[in-house]
Amino acid sequence: MYDLLFKNAIVIDGTNQPAFAADVAIESGLIQVVDRSCSLQPDHAHQVVDAQDRLLTPGFVDIHTHYDGQVCWDKQVTPSAWHGVTTVIMGNCGVGFAPVRPGTEGDLVALMESVEDIPGTALHDGISWDWESFSEYLDVIDTPYTIDIGTQVPHVAVRHYVMGDRSYHKASIQDIEQMQTITRQALEDGALGFSTSRFYGHVDKSGKLIPGTNASAQEMCAIGEAFKGLDHGTIEIISDHLNSQEELDWIEHIIRTTGRPVTALATSGEGILWSLAAQLAADGFALRPQVGARPASILMTLEGTINPMRQHMAYREIQHLPVVERQRALLNPTFRHRVLTEAPILPRNKDAVRFMNDFEHIYVLDDQLSYEPTTADSIAAIADSQSQTPLEVIMDSLAAGKVLLVFFRGYNHDLEPQRKTIEDPLSVFGLSDGGAHCGVLVDASVPTYMLSYFTRDRQRGPHISLPLVIHKMTQDTAQMYGLSDRGVISPGFKADLNLIDYADLKLLPPEMVYDLPAGGKRLIQKAQGYLMTVCAGEITYRDGEHTGAMPGRLIRGGR
User: Fold this and answer.
1) pLDDT per position in the chain (559 positions), as tens?
2) Does 84 lie in the same domain as 221?
3) Residue 27 forms beta bridges with which residues?
4) What is the pTM of this model?
5) Same domain, 365 and 438
6) Burial 205-222 (b: 16+ CB within 10 A, else e)
7) CA torsion angle for 458, 459, 464, 469 (degrees, to 10)?
8) Would you call 455 helix, strand, or coil by DSSP?
9) What is the CATH number of the domain that holds 43?
10) 320 Cβ partners below 8 Å, 6+ apart?
11) 366 and 465 within one domain
């Protein structure tokens, strides 16, 4: 007797092969049979689901999240779990919460709050801090979940643990040796990898680059040596210097001397990073540029972390009011006159100034949630067409509950560059930032976006094939972190699955909720069309509602 049987499914198995009809039988958390004749008998299973020609895919594997704190209080790991994700990898971008010296927990919280826009009050209230070492952290988070979780050891936490207040400065030989030892021990204890940030935008609350941003090649290579002799472990890098030969030299050194894979966040599909990735691939090594569903962007709402109205004293005087009252004020002639005539109070951060004032590159997010606006969707263009000022359009849009979209850089009014980098076999799909950027982003929903928009609804350019998108979010991402037991619908693989009404699949609009510890806020986004999600053979979600099942576990690398 099988535990669970899917009858008459349209299977896309994760390997980038065409869809096929099949019955899929599950027992003891594993896929046992994939029968293309659809002849398995229903009376041979305890539970039977008639898939009725609906889409059956592997569960999605999201390799770029920041749930490091959230897993302490949210065992469903939302919103990722609402979008067919059955495995997440945390500890990206060099930030995390272990190791930590007693008494310095607040430093790591402040860094995470500044870098990843996660409310510090929620982290303080929601995290138990029952650990010091990375191994102890793994033990604390080794609890049941709706999905599987794995994590990496973060450079910032390791550096801060070793160097304390000196962690912003150059490391000594002794410091480097200690960081190497801690990283090695973390990997042996189950870390899936190591992550670091060398990105100008990752600063602490005082505006200083976070620890490790300018770490020397000597330090990075020494930490890389911690991977020698291990059969698991991936290195994740976010860096401003990936078109610098000096930066790529130490990355290549680590890859060639350890044999371990590296994924580096890529902002385009060109440059010497991609050339090196191709050269290493030809030699049997893995350097995978990591790309997302959309260019780096933020959403601006009245409740969010950033919105253009916060530059105006008239708005600051009412920003404590409920959203409905603020929306009414935006339409009040007296209020609008003040906004239009008073000088704005510009932020010190030059990116923030651009985000809120470059009206030719601020867009109203369309009802389709396409994230692919045209020039006509810009605030400047709308203002011109309506004989209004850009600020009037912004006030009208926010008063109507519209969401404003702004890209970091490089968006040229279509997503063709994004499509091409996603389709590139050298790239790996990531950058969802699930659990992070709570006031400006909800890219944990990108699996649904990729399926509904890029494979089906897009009109401004070619689609990406459905089998390729599913491959990029399942087998390919799983293999990036050595998770060879999942991401494919085939006998012997872990029974992580999604049953999807593909024709009905769609994203719902982003919304702000206040469900974090201490009343912290976060943008969430739900979906419709997921009929069922299965983790380790147990149904965890039906029609988007949690069943109560908690079959997910902590993944320990090398175990």
Assistant:
1) 999 999 999 999 999 999 999 999 999 999 999 999 999 999 999 999 999 989 999 999 999 999 999 999 999 999 999 999 999 999 999 999 999 999 999 999 999 999 999 999 999 999 999 999 999 999 999 999 999 999 999 999 999 999 999 999 999 999 999 999 999 999 999 999 999 999 999 999 999 999 999 999 999 999 999 999 999 999 999 999 999 999 999 999 999 999 999 999 998 878 999 999 999 999 999 999 999 999 899 999 999 999 999 999 999 999 999 999 999 999 999 999 999 999 999 998 888 999 999 999 999 999 999 999 999 999 999 999 999 999 999 999 999 999 999 998 779 999 999 999 999 999 999 999 999 999 999 999 999 999 999 999 999 999 999 999 999 999 999 999 999 999 999 999 999 999 999 999 999 999 999 999 999 999 999 999 999 999 999 999 999 999 999 999 999 999 8
2) yes
3) 30
4) 0.97
5) no
6) eeeebbbbbebeeebbbb
7) 0
8) helix
9) 2.30.40.10
10) none
11) no
The H or E element that residue 413 is part of is none
CB 183 within 8 A of CB 135: no
Paired residues of 363 in beta bridges? 378, 405
Range of the domain at 268: 63-294+416-487
Q: Give the start-end residues of each E strand in 408-529.
A: 428-429, 497-500, 506-507, 511-516, 520-524, 527-528
Helix%, strand%, coil% for the chain, nearest 5: 35, 20, 40
Rounded CA separation 2/7 (Å): 12
In angstroms, rounded to a whole number, what is the distance separating the alpha carbons of residues 100 and 159? Answer: 10
Q: Which of 431, 451, 444 is nearest to 522 (CA)?
A: 444
Confirm if 442 and 432 have CB atoms less than 8 A apart: no
- Tell the residue number behind the tokens 């012997």, with chain if given: 492
CATH classification at residue 277: 3.20.20.140
